[in-house]
Write a structure and sequence with these properties.
This protein is α/β, with parallel strands linked by helices. The chain is built from 4 helices and 7 strands; from the N terminus they run ββαββαβαββα. Strands 1-7-6-5 form a 4-stranded mixed sheet. A 3-stranded mixed sheet has the order 2-3-4.
């Protein structure tokens, strides 16, 4: 089994550019109702994950910044606290499962280190649930 089996391609993933503003990130996360999104450089490289908590901590630590001001605050000003480790597209499936134990999603990189999509923990669990259900029906 290959990682590609579980991959949600970049075109179907909500992500934020490292060159975005805090306001753009908030609006994207609100639109998709996500609590965390991958951050990508203009070259398409994975640069970490931005969470709602990161944004809330930024606003708490900068009480002078109003919501209207977030349109002018570069996302680079926000400290990221969660480390979401990526995996190479050709890595062993066991390594993917190990990362998914601790992460809601696993960013996937091609052989040049470019972000190509994510594997959601839910996709793995759904697959395993269906396999288990099939075994129980057969047994």
């Amino acid at each position: 089994m290959k990682i590609a089996f579980f991959l949600t391609p970049k075109a179907q993933v909500a992500w934020v550019s490292t060159t975005s503003t805090v306001r753009q990130a908030i609006e994207k996360m609100e639109h998709y109702r996500y609590t965390a999104v991958p951050l990508l450089t203009p070259e398409g490289r994975y640069d970490g994950t931005l969470t709602e908590g990161d944004l809330l901590w930024y606003l708490k630590q900068n009480p002078h910044v109003s919501f209207a001001d977030t349109e002018y605050v570069a996302l680079a000003a926000v400290t990221r606290r969660l480390v979401v480790k990526p995996i190479a597209f050709d890595a062993e499936i066991e390594a993917l499962f190990a990362l998914a134990l601790d992460q809601n999603f696993v960013p996937v990189l091609d052989d040049r280190g470019v972000f190509i999509g994510i594997v959601r923990r839910r996709s793995i669990l759904t697959f395993l649930h269906e396999k288990l259900a099939g075994l129980l029906r057969a047994g």
